[in-house]
Amino acid sequence: MDTKMKFGERLLDILRGADRIVALTGAGVSAESGVPTFRDAQQGLWADEDPLQLATPEGFEANPARVWEWYAWRRTLINGVQPNPAHHALAAWEHRVGSFTVVTQNVDGLHQKAGSRRVLELHGNIHRTICSRDWELLAIKHDGSQPRCPRCGALGRPDVVWFGEMLPVQALNDASAAIAQADVVMSLGTSSLVQPAASLPVKALELGIPVLEVNPQQTPLSAHALVSLRGKAGDVLPELLMQL
Ligand code: OAD
């Protein structure tokens, strides 16, 4: 019995001919590693928690201990998981083309752990801690307690982007530049709801670049993508790569 997934020759031809690829990834790509997504109805982090309290500068100011505790919990969770077949497929893809850029909204570092070398982190990285006053990187050992900046005494905070904050300019510019040069853009495991990340595949569409989406659910991007594959990234991506 032929159990191969069917992708359509047009998509396979485009991917076979693509030498510059950008993969925009979201929480869905880490879901199969055991990292909860944000907006999935049952298990999503924002189903039980209020993002305004945990992921805004105002929430941090109001209750830094609570915010720190939540990020310490997530960091411990992330430290206990491994990259899944989706991360590995993307890392392997990088070796097969001239340029492969992962642009990620994830803060878990799992793409790098899987071996991807060109990773642009749009929302920071949960493993790093910065001074909440001047945003300088703090070299601290995580023991669960909230650190203070050794230079100015301000509270340490995770080096992640919160709602209402600017994205790292360099990463965003590099992502835009990679998209402008891309032969294909893939939007993987993201609800395509959070800006400015969600605008990157739209920019690709405006430039006439084919966009492929992989997501078990429909998103605002689905209707505009060249192809929107309904499936889990960890199932679809290794199979897709195998058929190229
Ligand atoms: P969301 O939680 O908004 O969306 C996750 C998406 O992954 C959904 O569309 C799911 O259908 C899809 N999904 C679930 N399991 C999947 C799987 N196995 N394979 C593929 N897709 C799957 O997460 P993001 O789009 O990443 O920002 O959210 C964007 C930003 O909003 C996050 O970076 C975070 C959040 O608030 C900050 O914390 C600043």
Describe the biggest sheet? 6 strands, parallel
Kindly, what is the distance between the CA atoms of the first and last residues, rounded to a whole number of angstroms?
21 Å
Bulk shape: elongated
The SS-based structural class is alpha/beta
β-strand percent reads 15-25%
Strand order in space, largest sheet: 3-2-1-7-8-9
Low-confidence stretches: none
Oligomer: single chain
Total count of strands? 9
> Would you list the SSEs in sequence order as H and E?
HEHHHHHHEHEEEEHEHEEH
| Helicity, as a percent range | 25-40%
Cα gyration radius (Å): 18 Å
Average pLDDT metric:
94
Q: What hetero molecules are in the model?
A: 2'-O-acetyl adenosine-5-diphosphoribose
How many helices does DSSP assign? 11
Describe the model:
This protein is α/β, with parallel strands linked by helices and 244 residues long. The protein contains eleven helices and nine strands. The strands form two sheets. It has a six-stranded parallel beta sheet with strand order 3-2-1-7-8-9, sandwiched between helices. The protein has a three-stranded antiparallel beta sheet with strand order 5-4-6, covered by helices on one side. The longest helix has 16 residues, at 64-79. It is elongated. The chain binds 2'-O-acetyl adenosine-5-diphosphoribose (OAD). 2'-O-acetyl adenosine-5-diphosphoribose binds next to helix 2 and helix 11. The site of 2'-O-acetyl adenosine-5-diphosphoribose has 29 residues, from helix 2 and helix 11.
